[in-house]
Write a structure and sequence with these properties.
Blueprint (H helix, E strand, L loop, with lengths): L1 E3 L5 E3 L6 H4 L1 H30 L1 H14 L4 E4 L2 E4 H18 L10 H16 L6 H24 L3 H28 L7 E2 L3 E2 L8 H22 L3 H20 L3 H18 L1 H21 L5 H15 L13 H19 L10 H8 L14 H9 L1 H24 L3 H20 L10 H13 L9
Antiparallel strand pairs: 1-2, 3-4, 5-6
Helix pairs in contact: 2-3, 2-4, 3-4, 3-7, 3-18, 4-6, 5-6, 5-16, 6-18, 7-8, 7-9, 8-9, 8-10, 8-17, 10-11, 10-17, 12-13, 13-14, 13-15, 15-16, 16-17, 17-18
């Protein structure tokens, strides 16, 4: 039988599926839902049990929760609570139980821990003037997490194998993000305002913004490069580490983050100059030649790249000129200058205890430039942000913390007994250099990266290479 379908199309009787068939997939999904929930619950409980029974696994898991914490987060009293906080609580509970049973050694409170404690105390003091204590608590939790990771991690990661596993977890997490970012950039997966010219989209991973993503990759790259150059044995192992460094480096370039690029100049130079006499001679001999080559090739480089590099120097020259006329070319630089100006005004008006840690946004309206009504959460300079929010003494304490971290990492590098441990110490030194430089034009203590910083410091100073106990 042939009938006329609506619109003149010919439909043969019996060809159209019966209405009940369309409901079959929905029915199957509903029928399977309880089983899927049970399986998910079992897997989740098994994971929780494993982290509680073996708290060392929780340290490794933190390397992955930081970049992927946006996949599972909730808001409590206006604050985001992520998987990172959940794993840290499990780490505390598991370590506390193991410590009570005598299965792990007592933690060591070294100079780095003392420096973090001093900074945390001064940050707490600034809460006395904070208009929003919830925002203050969020910032204090970040530093408490850094201290927790370092103190407890030192107690758990006492063997070279433990440090190798932590390095593997950090590298695997960074590489997975780099692969994702390269796919975003080449396949143009992302919002149009991340486009740089018609052919490149700025990689942003799971960080929602390219700049923190570049900062995250930049924390790992000196570490991986150092291990690839100085710390691996065996062709296959070295090859895997070299490929990892290349993937992370390519994605860092694809973020087009000027702050991350600046950080890597410092981080990789630290690794090369401190780690290799030949590199020091090469830089001294060929550094000037390299500058000449770059300048000669400058006219044929992509404009999208050269414009962003030029804007780095423009931002340094233009500081204090935030009232200049805005153009599409200088908008990003002028926006950053406006935040620097607001942060400086906050500090100048409140030099002792600041405006309250975490409260940059709360008081921004009182210190902003008229043309820039939107606060960005920080002053686009971590040193200035700490000074504005917590005062002079806290800013000095933060610089002291960096100095202590550098000294401890250098000491670990000099006294390490194996090439692998020396490479880790050298790479961590480069990561600290990248962090210190990038924080001059941005703030990397976002998106859980304070935990990543803690893990890298832990990796550098996890200590004694002697048999440990679970």
């Amino acid at each position: 039988m042939v009938t006329m379908a609506r619109g003149g199309d010919i439909a043969r009787g019996g060809d159209a599926p019966p209405p009940w068939l369309a409901a079959v997939p929905v029915g199957i999904a509903i029928a399977l839902l309880p089983a899927l929930l049970v399986v998910g619950a079992v897997i989740g409980l098994a994971g929780v049990g494993a982290l509680l029974a073996r708290p060392r696994l929780a340290v490794y898991a933190l390397a992955f929760t930081v970049p992927y914490q946006g996949l599972a987060e909730t808001r409590i009293q206006g604050a985001n609570v992520t998987a990172t906080e959940g794993v840290i609580l499990l780490l505390l509970a598991g370590w506390g139980t193991a410590r009570a049973a005598g299965r792990v050694p007592a933690p060591r409170l070294g100079p780095l821990t003392v420096a973090i404690g001093l900074l945390l105390s001064l940050l707490i003091l600034s809460c006395a003037v904070a208009p929003n204590l919830v925002l203050s608590a969020k910032e204090l939790v970040k530093w408490a997490e850094v201290a927790t990771v370092i103190v407890i991690g030192q107690s758990l990661l006492s063997r070279p194998r433990d440090r190798a596993l932590l390095l593997g977890a950090l590298t695997a997490a960074a590489v997975s993000q780099a692969v994702y970012g390269l796919l975003q950039s080449t396949l143009l997966w992302g919002p149009s305002h991340f486009m740089i010219g018609p052919w490149l989209l700025r990689a942003y991973g799971s960080f929602e913004q390219p700049n923190p993503f570049g900062g995250y990759l930049g924390l790992h790259l000196p570490l991986v490069v150092s291990v690839a150059a100085f710390g691996t044995a065996g062709r296959w192992t070295r090859g895997a580490v070299v490929v990892s460094a290349a993937v992370i480096g390519m994605c860092l370039i694809a973020t087009m983050s000027r702050g991350a690029w600046l950080g890597q100049v410092t981080g990789l130079l630290v690794v090369a100059l401190v780690g290799s006499k030949a590199a020091r001679h090469a830089v001294a001999t060929f550094g000037g030649l390299g500058v000449v080559v770059v300048l000669a090739a400058w006219p044929v480089l992509p404009a999208a790249v050269t414009d962003r590099v030029q804007s780095i120097f423009a931002s340094l020259v233009a500081f204090g000129a935030a009232s200049n006329a805005l153009t599409p070319e200088n908008w990003a630089v002028m926006e950053r200058l406006s935040q620097w100006t607001a942060g400086w005004r906050m500090f100048a008006a409140n030099p002792l205890v600041g405006v309250g840690i975490g409260n940059y946004n709360s008081v921004y309206a009182d210190y902003r430039l008229p043309e820039w009504p939107v606060a960005l959460g920080h002053a686009h300079n971590h040193y200035l942000t700490v000074a504005a929010e917590a005062g002079t003494f806290a800013a000095v304490a933060y610089v002291v913390l960096l100095v202590v971290a550098v000294r401890q990492t250098l000491r670990g590098w000099r006294t390490a007994s194996t090439p692998f441990s020396r490479a880790i110490g050298l790479g961590a030194l480069g990561s600290i250099g990248a962090l210190a430089t990038h924080n001059m034009v941005d703030v990397l203590f976002v998106h859980g990266m304070s935990v990543t910083i803690g893990l890298i410091l832990l990796l550098a100073g996890a200590g004694a290479e002697e048999p440990g106990r679970e």
